[in-house]
Amino acid sequence: MESEYTNDEYTIGWICALQEEFDVATAMFTEEHGLPQSLPKEDNNAYMLGQIGHHKVVMACLPVGRMGTNPAAVVADSMRRTFKSLRFGLLVGIGGGAPKPFVGKDVRLGDVVVSVPKGAYGGVVQYDFRKLEAGKNGFTHRGHLCSPPEKLLTNQSWGELSDEYEYPAVGDKLFQSDYIHDGSKAVGSGSFATDDCAHCDEGKLITGRKQRKDNIPVVHLGTIASGNFVIKDATVRDYIDECYDNTVLCFEMEAAGLMNTFPCPVVRGISDYADSHKNDGWRNRAIAAASVYAKALITIISPEDVVELPKVNKLMAELTLTVKGVSEDVAKVSEQVQEDREERDRKQILDWITSIDYDSQLSDIVKKSQECTGRWLLDSPEYQNWANGGKQILYCPGIPGAGKTVLTSIIIHDLLDRFSGTSGFGLALLRQLAGRCSPLPSEVKQLCSTNYSRKTRPREAEIVTTLRAITKLFTKSFIIVDALDECQKADGCRTKFLNILFDIQKEVCISILATSRSDGDISRFF
Fold first, then answer.
1. Terminal CA-to-CA distance of the chain, rounded, Å?
2. I need a labelling partner for 51 at 20 to 30 A (CA). Which of 2, 217, 382, 486 fits?
3. Is the C-alpha dihedral spanning 19, 20, 24, 25 positive or negative?
4. What DSSP designation does 458 have?
5. 357-523 has which CATH code?
6. Could you read off the pLDDT of 291-314 as tens digits, one per residue?
7. What φ, ψ does residue 514 adopt, rounded to 5°?
8. Over the range 474-501, which residues count as b (16 or more CB within 10 Å of their CB) and which as e?
9. Where is the Nephrocystin 3-like N-terminal domain (predicted)?
């Protein structure tokens, strides 16, 4: 769907680094506009446009597998050139916290950190590493970058997040900086390894942190450190923090690429402590918290303020907002995002089975046919018995050009009308049958997963097993085979195909209809 608004009508940009961040971000729209009306050839970004409050917002995500300051700069620069009326942007996602349990701000998992100038630093500082030298940590101070807009929002009252964005079962564990994670008993291997610190020495946990009254995220305003790789060493984390006078609250990988060309508030949900004890337990919570905060910020900014923003720092200096009403939106985030993910996965799996869109072909043929075409067949006793009975077989032979495919399409259209209100009605073979299941049956997902991992197409036995399992999910199904004579005879392919259909029919309630040129070899099966 293409937006009804021109690119120049969008005034706020929102950038994410990860697809999962982008999924939640788009759920923050109060109204989706769709895709841009036009894009310059040199702009390779994928955008989603929409409304938040009174503002038209453009969202973009870094390319899959590309993280760091350089890709972020490319995405931001393209966005700025394509949407020339943007007044400011937001960089929203997750980051690693720099906890200060007893001195300063005690950043915890699930909290939100927002970049604002602190002392001599402009909200975001950039670090770099070079070859280690004797007696040195190899850390190179790169200075601070341009300040983001100052109208930022701090809030201590949040609506509770729901479903997969709820407070995680994985505990908030902060270990001593010099204690390395014990991953010797992680489950799985490589990128699929899972480990929740179950085997780490809890005697090395930092104790005495002040108990919070609830699980509501706290927003911290301060310095964010940005570089080109993940910090996962607590001693390095603490060293960098010290270099910036203990002002760093969060570590991430994209902001430094934006600050000098696309100054914007950086909003990060804390998903780990930038140490060796990283795990994914807090990612969803952190992503949702950051997104809700960013939406709240956009919501309270007046359109007049945005219009006056060539000077980005004209945003108000201090603001406190109670995010009432946002909680209702957040309550829908899990459901919306899950639906989007399932639909994307569903399409990928169905396209993997076959890219042929039978529904479109059916629609085209039916539209081209004359009214009342095929009525003689639909009214015939043979067809009525086939459509209304169980485990029926109907064979329709004919000469070439007699209109068998048109009749087949009319039959399918009639069945769709006839059973449109019937729960459990399925139609045609694997793709169409699976496509009428929501969510996709586990057997189909397993078929795709198994063959995708071994880079093969499914074997005949796997297809039959899956088809048999899916047909059992329906009270009644119809399998319609058009132009059966075009199914190759070599190696007994056609015979094997028909035998499989008839074998499945013995187990479940399916009715079979086949069209073909007159062929004695085929007729003997019917």
1. 47
2. 217
3. negative
4. P
5. 3.40.50.300
6. 998 998 888 877 766 665 543 333
7. -135, 140
8. bebbbbbbbebbebeeeeeebeeebeeb
9. 373-418, 428-517
If DSSP states are collapsed to H, E and C, what string results for 177-208?
A: CCCCCCCCCCECCHHHCECCCCCCCHHHECCC
Residue found under tokens 């929203």: 92
- Cα 352 to Cα 339: distance, rounded to the nearest angstrom: 20
Fold of domain 7-182+196-346? Rossmann fold (3.40.50)
Q: Which residue has the tokens 């069945």?
A: 415
* Of 16, 289, 271, the residue nearest 159 (C-alpha): 289
Both tokens assigned to 3: 């937006």
Residue-range domain boundaries for the chain: 7-182+196-346, 357-523
- Residue 129's DSSP bridge partners are 139
- List, as one string, the DSSP characters of 488-507: --GGGHHHHHHHHHHHHHHH
The torsion angles phi and psi of 165, rounded to 5 degrees, stand at -105, 10
pLDDT tens digit string along 60-91? 999 876 777 788 888 988 998 899 888 888 99
Yes or no: say if 224 and 117 are a contact pair by the CB < 8 Å rule.
Answer: no
As given in the structure block, the two tokens for residue 134 are 């004797």
Maximum alpha-carbon separation in the chain = 93
Q: Can you list the positions of beta strands (E) in 449-494? A: 476-481
CA 473 vs CA 111, 408, 416, 512: distances in Å: 44, 24, 18, 17
